[in-house]
Every structure is written in structure tokens, then in C-alpha cells.
Amino acid sequence: MKLPRLRYNPYRDAYDEKFMSTLGDRYERNTRWSRMRLENVQELVDPKAGDKVLDLGCAAGSIAHFLSTFGCEAVGTDYSPEAIEEARRRFPEMTFEQADCVDLPFEANTFDKVVAADLTEHLDQPTLDGMFSECFRVLRPGGTLSIHTPNPRHMIERLKEKEFVLGQNPTHIGLRTREDLEQQLESAGFVIDWSEWRPSFIPAFRAFELVAGRASELFRYRICLRAAKPA
Fold this sequence. Notes:
This protein is α/β, with parallel strands linked by helices. It has helices at residues 17-29, 32-45, 62-68, 81-90, 125-138, 155-161, 178-187, 203-212, and strands spanning 7-8, 52-56, 73-78, 95-98, 111-117, 139-150, 165-166, 191-198, 222-228. The strands form two sheets. A seven-stranded mixed beta sheet has the order 4-3-2-5-6-9-8, sandwiched between helices. Strands 1-7 form a two-stranded parallel sheet.
């Protein structure tokens, strides 16, 4: 007799008001997952006072708000009206705009930096191509685009792919390797400025990944890429 698979799957088919509220609460509670994400984004973006930064796929506004604490003029956009409503509710002093990442409502050469944290895995290829094109347009010469995304070769993502123990996130329709993302960024006119990986947020596993990840993609939890628009 074939035994049923044990499978844990907390993911949603769509991101509603409850999800956005929960995401914002994680930021306010400073959870391990949130700290990992913010540390990675800070290293990627290298925020400086006076930088004008665009947060794509801003959700509840956490990344944009975090970057504003460094003195950045941060603006957030998201395709979801629920996300923009939640972000504006939490951070009424900041600017959040509902917008498609392939058709941004900003003039060319507007931003010093753009960040897409945990966004590209939700995009099909034509949308990602359009996003890269728009990022190139709205960035000033010398400006950077930072990408933070799951590594499809990590053991957790491979378990999800096989629907074994862990279920796949149905909204992750565009998981891509670091090499694929680098190639696509270069095709869009960018120059790769920084390309790294970072471990997970689980303390014991994180310590192991820091060592094992040097030798194997199985233990490289997040892809961290920064690309520059030529000056």
C-alpha cells in the first residue's frame, strides 16, 4: 500500500488583506525571517541618506519604511490594491502607488536605487523582461537594481518542487537560478555589480549553511544580486 506523503503547505493562491496584515506584523514584531530579509536588503541596497529608492512589490511597505530609516526618500509600488491600502495605513507619511512593474508611473532617470525583494519569483518571463526594462528606464546613470529571491537549487525549494514534506508556493511561477538572472540583467543593459547568496533564518540550520553553502547550492537559501545602470 502506498503511504500518503506528509506535506506542510501554508501558502496562499493569492495575497489578500489578511496576508498583507500578517506580513506587516512580522516586520513590526522583528521576527527572525524579517530580520534575515532586512539584513540582506541593507547589504544589497547599501542605503545612504538622500538616496531616492523605489521598492517594487512593496506589499505592506516594510522594506520601503526600513530604507527610509537610513535617510532615504523611499517610494513603494505594488500591483495589489490590498498591499497599497495596508502600506498607506501603516506608514501614512510615506508614498505608495499602485502600479504594474512593467509600466511604472515615474519619469526616466528618477531613482538612485531600485529594490525587488522577493518579487521576481512571482513573475513570468515577459513580465520580468518588462520589469527590467522599466527599472533601467527609471534609474539614473550609475543607479542600481537589487534583487533578493529564493534559490531554486536550495534543498527546501527542491523538496517543494517534489511536493515532498513541503508544498510548493503556487505563486512562485518564476523561480530562477542566479546565472539565469545575471544573464537576463545583462541582456537588459545592466552590469552585474554584486552577486552572492545568503543563508536561511533558522538559527541552527543557518550556521550549518554558512559552512556547507560554500561547497553546494543545496545550502544557499537566498540569491542576492545587484546590477548597475552604466554611468
